[in-house]
Specification:
homotrimer; 2 domains; TIM Barrel; two-stranded antiparallel sheet
Chain lengths: 287, 287, 287
């Protein structure tokens, strides 16, 4: 499963099927949590499986997840019973401890859904504090950092630059890496500001995130672009690797390349860029 | 007890009573530690209780604390014996481990001061490292991050932007949140630079701090302003909540509001701003 | 041993002896790891001890280390057997857990090299996560943060500003401080950009690092300058201390000095600057 772009939609709006598919996201998350008002929770649960089935039928290879309400909410049990094999996975928001994930996995197993992908939302102070602990044990496949909820929980304020969440956002990426879990970057609430989305996504990629949450279809193309090596990056990476391999062949472990000393770690970063671009080709360049 | 503004004064300067009161701080801390030279330590201890009594008598609702010297200093025992019921609480600087707070609480209890508020200073490398541990157990009510001492202990340098303490300052705010302890932000040493104070306070609020240390009476108004929602913030928050409630009423969990997608966490942040402003009214708008 | 400047050179290039000595670094590290290609590993091991002997003979007081390959690499054992008493110490890259250092110390002891200095490289996600743990126990004397390897391991990207490694770089400095280990700052790969080196070094010093890695001889002078108090800094520090001492003599613990409130922590930082400059004089101002 690929997680470069993860697009959210309320689960009670199946009329959006085509709009969601056209966005070309790797994953669509049908939301039963914050995206759905109290009055519509039941309708959203009722619509979920058919909505998912239609998405998967029309969108070849598309991942379709449901975001349920968190373990401590009153909706958790009912949300769980709304899940079915039409989905590929489930998103557990506000994950705070290992037992949250263990409970979820047990229920999925009981319901014959043990092949589900599980994405954990880290978006509370306690979740950020415990993230390396609860990702240990392999119960989650992916994790996202939720900057808006985290800041609300901290009683803080969000800024355009996002320095106020740098510590938490870095900690989540690090924990994901040491636990071999896919790390997905925060949303950008201002969905009309493409420049902000690009900057925020670029920086998320710098931190080691491999994909990004999208709260509007128009953000999908921006996320895909930001988390895909550019033609220039790819060309530079290839040229660096050629020069580095020539150096190795002549016995050097370090080469000079365009004013930099290039050794193993920089060559590895270049190789990762080439690999990412190659994987893209394999995926057939879904728009 | 409210901690939006916490003003320090040497304990040996009771002539400053009126100046301190006029500043209108929520808390005044009478300092026996760094603010008092060796030669004056005894005089400061001797003056402490009368100074505190006068402050509390004239300043209705004012919190008056003493900052004693740290547990590992030679002055700790004598400072403790100078405390009395004229004070509301005590500040323990350079807190580094749970036993520091346990020792303090035991002594307070023995001296009939078990209703004291305890504010822990986190301002050494070890203190920052251990903060989540020693705040577990409920022995402290509030915590401040001391950037100057921390940087001195690290052997680092302070900059105007403060990026060098972002990690530590973020870690202290996070630990305070998960342990339900009030978090108070660092000082600004340059007491003539109002612009710097405003920027630093605004960013402290972004990180989740609820108040700020003041080392000069003129900083109190700046801190109060920075940690109080502005009229514009309040108006925006109220408008957002009205729109969000209308959305909920019509079944939507997400609304569009001024170019943003607004869901539960953003609505929560708006509600927190309204609540903060309302609490302010209740406190009678002390100047 | 002093670690203000730590200059790397491939171990298979003994012809560089004079160039390395002229740079005037505190420590030279002869690299068997990333700086040496596969084809030259054996030659580098063979050249190591003579290269080190010549450096130490001609460079009075110079520290000469070997960087071996990491514990999990295929070259580790052979690299260890290439070490000898001509060296002062060893650099263990990609340190991730306490047993990495314990294994190394045991082997050094068996080989009669128990007086070696050990410098641990922290440059993987797991290394950054575990750094405070594996530095506990006194098995390492110094530690460096390797931003390039760390970012490669995270799958991230490096920027000029380096915000993407702020969390990790801060965490390593903090862990080094609480474990009383010398902290050495990251490389700057772009060895022709002096301005970048200066900025990066200055910020490293702000975080508490006491020296910096150099990958080219020309970076040594830049690192030395950045990690040495300037004449202006020294003058300011001395003036501050004079004023502070006068304040203490008159019983004040806080003084006003050039628009700042100066108390103990700020005086300590000034004293540290004066001490650093004095130590420099003692070292005889090696160029």
């Amino acid at each position: 499963m690929r997680y470069r772009t993860v697009l959210f939609s309320p689960a009670n709006m199946p009329s959006r099927v085509n709009r969601l598919l056209e966005a070309g996201s790797d994953v669509v998350v049908l939301d039963l949590e914050d995206g759905v008002g109290l009055e519509q929770k039941a309708a959203a649960r009722a619509a979920l499986r058919d909505f998912a089935a239609e998405l998967r039928q029309k969108g070849a290879g598309l991942g379709v997840f449901a975001r349920i309400n968190d373990v401590r909410s009153e909706f958790y049990e009912e949300d769980l019973s709304a899940l079915g094999p039409e989905l590929n996975g489930v998103v557990l928001p506000k994950t705070e401890q290992a037992s949250d994930l263990a409970d979820l996995r047990r229920t999925l197993s009981e319901r014959g859904l043990s092949d589900f992908q599980v994405m954990a939302g880290v978006e509370t102070a306690l979740g950020v504090f415990n993230v390396a602990t609860f990702l240990d044990g392999g119960l989650a496949d992916a994790v996202y950092f939720g900057a808006e909820d985290f800041t609300a929980d901290m009683g803080g304020l969000r800024s355009r630059e996002g320095t106020e969440v740098l510590y938490a956002r870095s900690q989540v990426a690090l924990a994901a890496r040491i636990r071999s879990v896919v790390a997905i970057d925060q949303i950008v609430a201002d969905f009309e500001d493409d420049e902000l989305y690009r900057l925020d996504a670029r920086f998320g990629r710098s931190l080691g995130y491999v994909g990004k949450l999208c709260i509007h279809p128009r953000q999908v193309a921006l996320a895909r672009e930001a988390f895909t090596p550019t033609a220039r990056e790819l060309e530079d990476a290839r040229a660096l690797l050629v020069a580095f391999d020539e150096g190795l062949a002549s016995g050097a472990g370090v080469i000079r390349f365009r004013g930099q000393m290039i050794d193993e770690p920089l060559a590895k970063r270049a190789a990762a860029i080439v690999a990412l671009a190659a994987a893209d080709q394999t995926h057939g360049g879904r728009p």
